[in-house]
Amino acid sequence: MLMDHDDAKEYLRSRMQDYLVTHHQVRNLRTNFQCVNASAHAHADRNPSMHFYPDSNRCKCFACGVSYDIFEFIRIDFGLSGFDETFKKACDLYDVQIARYVRKDNDYQKAFGQRCSEHPGISGMPYGKEFRRPSGTIREIPDQMSYYGRCVDLRKHSEKAMCYLAKRGLQEETIDYFQIGYDPSWHHPGTRNRPTERIIIPNSSNSYLARVLDDTLILGEYDHPKMKVGRQHLFNSRAIRPQSVVFVVEGEIDAMSIVQFGIPCVGLGSASQYRKLSDFLRLNPDNAKGSFFLICLDDDKAGKERAMDLSRLLDTDGFQCAMSNGLSAPFKDPNERLHMDPEGLGDVLRRAWNECQKLRIRRESA
Description:
- With 366 residues, this protein is of the alpha/beta class.
- It has three domains: 2-98, DNA Primase, Chain A (Alpha-Beta Complex); 143-229, DNA primase DNAg catalytic core, N-terminal domain (Alpha-Beta Complex), CATH 3.90.980; 237-365, Dna Topoisomerase Vi A Subunit, Chain: A, domain 2, CATH 3.40.1360.
- Helix content is 39%, strand content 17%.
- The chain contains 13 helices and 15 strands.
- α9 packs across α12 (334-340).
- The longest helix has 24 residues, at 342-365.
- The chain is globular, with a radius of gyration of 22 Å.
- The two termini are 42 Å apart.
């Protein structure tokens, strides 16, 4: 996620609950737990004295008399010295990218509007409606459907874009279903980096992923191969329906790779965003009634840890789930296997879906 410095600090502070669960294995936030500075207590805080306050996203230790936010936790846990070092570590933990040149005044909006008129490929992207947060006013991009439509047309007439998607193993039917587009001169509104060719993957009516076509491209210091615009949502949430088996992966392209075989799948965006699924299910419980979720995050340390966290979270919320880290083996992820071994991927996906369906029916009838 790309944010300016102030919005990033506020967002990271809001992840306090997730940090307590993930890094300190706190399972009940309504009761006291051991102080993060337990070594400073005379008896190592054997009678837990720290309490979490969700309204302020802070913790207080009644024995120490000290209040902590997430940055203090990270500084202590990782043995860091100053705030800059701590802030950078927090950004790494939660996949936050800092846009150093974001400005929110009228002069910036005028300058950006002029830049859009000079580059038709990015027109329709100035910031739109306002909404309030405790720290002040920030802006969110407006409905992007017209922009997506132009990008789809550009993709259909771009041999380079179609070749890139074909190399990823995606069929035209899948590409059209997800309304994948192409912008030949994409430029993020929050940076001053030069325009680049990007595949545009809609995430909602006002958020999307912009991914470079050339992975070897040398980008600017604050530019990235995969950049997200707008408030990100669970990718392909329409796949979640009552009495269904739904696969859960990290990336958007991985989700599309699995859907291509007719199997419902959602994408989190990254392993650190595993709470997106839980948040969606809490807001839409009827969509997931009787559903079974197979968690298939990447087979690396972060993927395995977040898969465990998501499994515990879904189990606590009363949803059926299981974990599988072998769908892509020996490849990195489902999309790489789709490109290298499509028949093998199809076979393992269908077997996994059938097993999950049996488990879902068995638990439903129990």
